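Lab notebook: predicted structure, single chain.

Context: the supervisor wants predicted structures on file for every construct in the current expression panel, including those that have not yet been purified. This is the next one on the list. No modifications to the sequence; it matches the entry in the shared construct table.
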Amino acid sequence: MPIRIPDALPAAAQLESENIFVMTEYRALHQDIRPLRVLILNLMPTKIATETQIMRKLSNTPLQVEVDLLRTKTHEATHVSAGHLETFYRTFDDIRDIHYDGLIITGAPVEQMPFEEVDYWPELCQIMDWSTTHVHSTLHICWGAQAGLYHHYGIQKYDLPAKASGVFEHYLVKPQSPLVRGFDDRFYAVHSRNTDVRREDVEAEPQLEVVAVSDEVGLYIVKSTDSRRFFVFGHPEYDTDTLRLEYERDVKRGLNPQVPAHYFPGDDPTAEPRNVWRSQAQLFYTNWLNYYVYQTTPYDLARAGEEH
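Prediction complete. Output recorded below exactly as produced.
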């Protein structure tokens, strides 16, 4: 099924070149079905790349998915043109009275800062509070997952002794969850983070449940028991070369980074990495949209955010 995005968004050409069904706004207006409305709060500095990665995963859905892009007003992005932000992004003031079927909050390169020292933290808290009454289902990614757990449940993050970067094997703690329906018993996922949330802290919170973990890097998927909030601590949306680009960036900065684990064949950074996480990543997004957005969201979107 198609994903509906603005006609001129740079991601459109890339997605169409991959034979992903992208529907123009003009064509979508001539269909009578109600699209799912999904808001992406993009906190990543590489905004265009992140837009494309997430929209690629949203493409395999039961209905049209109408995407709005949201940025924080209290932080000035420096890795994307002002024109791109002005053309394609909204601020919270623009959408505060709108209801959405789904919200995705991305990661951000601010993990090692205390939450309260992040310049847009008050605005992010306002958006997360707003989501409880205006969004049916919210998906938090990486630092966004840590931020969501801290804000909603008071769960702390902790610095890791070394960055968790690479492709790691995982297993299911709750295989009966529709969120992981179709997953292999053992599957691979990408992590790229400097901080961690402890499994025992999550399991001590009765409103949360652990769905998938890794022996090497801990938590991967956590959800609320009411199936309104989802937290993924990796980056299922990452492209094949994203970890390599991050590694090469850190090498150029003189940070002496470790080679991402289990990513390059033979741990040789000159070798071409293989993508072994693409299928589970697509399945994760598809399951979230199908079971926790499409099948449960109210048809009257003004009721999104109500308890069901």
